[in-house]
Design goal:
With about 260 residues, this protein is an alpha/beta fold. It has one domain (about 30-255): Glycoside hydrolase/deacetylase (TIM Barrel), CATH 3.20.20.370. The protein has nine helices and ten strands. The protein has helices spanning about 1-20, 50-60, 70-80, 95-110, 125-130, 140-150, 170-190, 205-210, 245-255, and strands at about 30-35, 35, 45, 65, 85-90, 115, 155, 195, 215-225, 235-240. The strands form two sheets. Strands 1, 4, 5, 6, 7, 8, 9 and 10 form an eight-stranded parallel β-sheet that branches. Strands 2-3 form a two-stranded parallel sheet. Strand 4 (about 65), helix 3 (about 70-80) and strand 5 form a beta-alpha-beta unit.
């Protein structure tokens, strides 16, 4: 019980301190999730369901304006002002638990989000992990994607087969990038203009392929917020893992710049 009170006291203290912070904008945090699951074997990637709910509750209680990634990027690009406490939520890879566990929480708070989905793995398994001896996990199906889109979840590109682009030939990398744009558009019926580098790996040649394929933006796994004037093909995010309990989540959200 004492431990619970200490944690609560820490949260209250942090929130009180944040109340006095400057209202000057320091960029927009884009949260990066993977799994929302209680499966402990993937703790580095899997945020427990109750913890994810607490994190979304915090955004709601603190008055954060959770906006779609697409809207935020367009406003930043045009110079249109954004609310001071704007945030975006993203998920990498398109695991089925995003539908089973994350979607109900997002619906509860009426939050939009973006899933970076390898288009050839829709309805399949995490084949890139299985090849490396990792446990099998189901990916989102077409039907689940359609329902998620109905509830303000958008889908953007993450290659065709979740290939680490710096580990394959330039020809294969180019094909994965180009195929991901057309393939995902065919599944969602929407224009696909944002790319995410698997494992955050890229180089100047790969950036060039992303631009040539017609993407307007690309996200990395580098830590930080997005700001006007950033290179649109090396945008940063804030990683949230299964090790980030609420106090740590608050610190990362509020202080990483």
């Amino acid at each position: 019980m004492r431990r619970v009170f200490l944690v609560l006291a820490l949260i209250v203290g942090v929130m009180a301190f944040l109340f006095f912070l400057s209202y000057r904008s320091n960029g927009v945090p884009v949260l990066m999730y993977h799994m929302v699951s209680d499966w402990s074997h993937r703790r580095a990637l899997a945020v427990p369901v109750k913890e994810f709910d607490r994190q979304m509750w915090y955004l709601h209680q603190r008055g954060y304006q959770v906006m779609s990634l697409e809207t935020i990027l367009k406003k930043l690009n045009s110079g249109e002002p954004l609310p001071r406490k704007t945030v975006a939520i993203t998920f990498d890879d398109g695991y089925q638990d995003n539908y089973i566990n994350a979607l109900p929480v997002l619906k509860k708070y009426h939050f939009p989000a973006t899933v970076f989905m390898p288009c050839s793995l829709v309805g399949e398994k995490n084949l890139w992990d299985i090849k490396r001896g990792k446990a099998e996990v189901k990916m989102l199906t077409r039907e689940q994607i359609a329902e998620m889109m109905f509830h303000k979840i958008s889908f953007q590109a993450h290659t065709s087969n979740h290939v680490v682009l710096t580990d394959v030939s330039p020809a294969r990398a180019r094909k994965e990038i180009f195929d991901s744009k057309a393939g995902l558009a065919g599944i969602t019926g929407k224009n696909v203009e944002i790319f995410c580098y698997p494992s955050g790996r890229y180089n100047n040649q790969i950036k060039g392929y992303v631009k040539a394929a017609g993407f307007n933006y690309a996200f990395t796994t580098r830590q930080g917020r997005i700001k006007p004037g950033d290179d649109p093909y090396t945008l940063k995010r804030i990683r949230v893992s299964g090790m980030n309990l609420l106090p740590d989540f608050i610190m990362r959200l509020e202080f990483i710049r």
